[in-house]
Amino acid sequence: MYVDDLPKRATVWLHTMNKGVLVLPLLLVLAGVAAARAELTEAAALQFMVRFEAALATEDFANVEPLIHPQAVFRFSESDHFGMADIRAAMERTWAFEVDDERYYLTDKRVLRSGKDAATVLFTWNWSGDSAEHGPFKITGRGTVQLVRHEGAIKILLEHLSR
Known about the structure:
Blueprint: H1 6-16, H2 23-37, H3 42-57, H4 61-64, E1 68-75, E2 80-82, H5 83-95, E3 99-114, E4 118-131, E5 135-150, E6 153-162
Parallel strand pairs: 1-6
Antiparallel strand pairs: 1-2, 3-4, 4-5, 5-6
């Protein structure tokens, strides 16, 4: 049986039931199917990016990890990072720099495309602060993320940052 056949088959099954004992569990399953079919909208993609930005600001990977697909790829100017362990190590190396008044934020967020199970978001990333080694700095660059639905949640499958 295919997911697309569930509503039609469920309707036939409901009409043939003697008593409605199993109606509630079936309706809950069908509601889950409908939620899984829901489009990943532009608004949902932008809301996700706000959550991702806030999680990054904590500099705690435990807050970032739930937002990343287990097989994600993060491409930075200097290197590529494959999978959760590699992505974690790259982020923690960056967070280890001694920076006062550090600020990382996203601007110019634009959803390029959104659809049933995926969305692509373009943005400008901004990182500023005061480094004991290099003094005050402000760096900006371009970013792209590919968002996908994974196990019922929106997650980053690909992030590409460049300067």
